[in-house]
Amino acid sequence: MNNATPAPNPAPDWLTDKAWVEVCNLDGLPTFKGFAQSFIEELAVYKELFDSNEAQDMPLAEPWQSALTSFQKLCILRCLRPDKVTIAVQGFVSEHLGQRFIEPPPFDLTTCYRESAPATPLIFVLSSGADPMADLLKLADDMKFNKKFEKVSLGQGQGPKAEKLLEMGMDRGIWVCLQNCHLAVSWMPTLERIVEGIEADKVHKDFRLWLTSMPSPDFPVAILQNGVKMTLEPPKGLKSNLVRQYTRFTDHYLNASSKPEQWRKLLFGLCLFHAVIQ
Q1: Kind and range of the H or E run holding 212
Q2: Name one Pfam family in it (predicted).
Q3: Pick from 75, 51, 76, 71: nearest CA to 61
Q4: What gap in Å lies between CA 278 and CA 236, rounded to an integer?
Q5: Coil, helix or strand for 213?
Q6: What is the Cα–Cα distance from 212 to 196, expressed in whole angstroms?
Q7: What pLDDT tens digit does each residue of the chain (278 aa) get?
Q8: In terms of pTM, does the model score above 0.70?
Q9: Torsion angle of alpha carbons 210, 214, 216, 221, nearest 10°?
Q10: Which of 16, 51, 207, 231 could make an S-S bridge to 125, C-beta 3.0–4.6 Å?
Q11: Axis crossing angle, helix 70-80 with helix 17-27, rounded to the nearest 10
């Protein structure tokens, strides 16, 4: 393909030159032969698509709407509205593989814990709008470690405190959580040295190191490679929010009432209200 255009931009008032060049490049592929001319003849259709907030769902002008596969339609969307490609790709995956492939599985911290060891840190890769601390505190409570759990939010001057906690944790079998590692860039080499120095046969078998950090180029690569990595995405939509809440409830919790039917209805109403607010 080349960037030579067969005709000048037919709608410079709304179509960028870059988008038009990409349309013309697409026309150079056998499957899309004639698309650029069809585009010029059906400008109203493509302007509506270009302006739409739901561009990924807008139909193309015929014969392209009927003749092209869903993947080939993605190529046209990529030319006109690249900002909608991610959403469209999710629809493509759902159509060809199934809805479950675009829905994040329920967060199972217990399984992640089972894969860890005293010398294997557990790393939460944070994303905006998601906080793993509630899940971590619940796991500590379930594992009877709520009184053997220490945490410190890293930042200016918190390095020495974190080092003392790590020494105490490795000696006494305490869980230590170092939060926001991305805010302590200068202390990361020290953390890397401490983690690399953990000897599995000498450290207390109950010791666990939990780390939380936003994605950062300064986070030690060695710790990432040797640790159990987890990411907690904020739930999107009512269903995902409700699933997130209900995975935290046990049957014992749901039945722990003298009026279980009314209790469950109240709990569902509260969770639904929370999901709507979210």
Answers
A1: strand 208-213
A2: Dynein_heavy
A3: 76
A4: 9
A5: strand
A6: 18
A7: 444 446 788 889 999 999 999 999 998 999 999 999 999 999 999 999 999 999 999 999 999 999 999 999 999 999 999 999 999 999 999 999 998 888 776 667 888 888 888 889 999 988 776 778 888 888 888 888 888 999 998 887 888 899 999 999 999 999 999 999 988 889 999 999 999 988 888 889 999 999 999 888 889 998 988 888 888 766 677 887 888 788 778 788 888 888 888 998 999 999 999 888 87
A8: no
A9: 20
A10: 231
A11: 150
Task: Kindly list the structural domains of the chain, giving each domain's residue range(s) and its CATH number in brackets, ordered by start.
Answer: 17-101 (no CATH), 109-232 (3.40.50.300), 238-277 (no CATH)
Task: Identify residue 203 by its one-letter amino acid code.
Answer: V
Question: Which value, in Å, is the radius of gyration of the alpha carbons in the chain?
Answer: 27
Q: How many other CB atoms are there within 10 angstroms of residue 39's CB atom?
A: 26
The sign of the dihedral angle between the CA atoms of 103, 106, 111, 117 is: positive
Q: Report the amino acid identity of residue 60.
A: L
CA angle 104, 108, 111 (to 5 degrees): 130
Residues ≥6 apart with Cβ < 8 Å to 69? none
Phi-psi region of 96 (alpha: psi -120 to 50; beta: other; left: phi over 0): alpha
Across the chain, how many H-helices and E-strands are there? Answer: 14, 5
Please return the burial class of 74, using the count of CB atoms within 10 Å of its CB with bins 0-12, 13-18 and 19+. Answer: middle
Tokens of 180: 């926001």
Residue 219 CB partners (closer than 8 Å, separation 6+): 181, 182, 188, 213
Q: Name the one residue in this structure whose structure tokens are 């936003």.
A: 214
HEC string for 139-194: HHHHCCCCCCEEEEECCCCCHHHHHHHHHHHHHHCCEEEEECHHHCHHHHHHHHHH
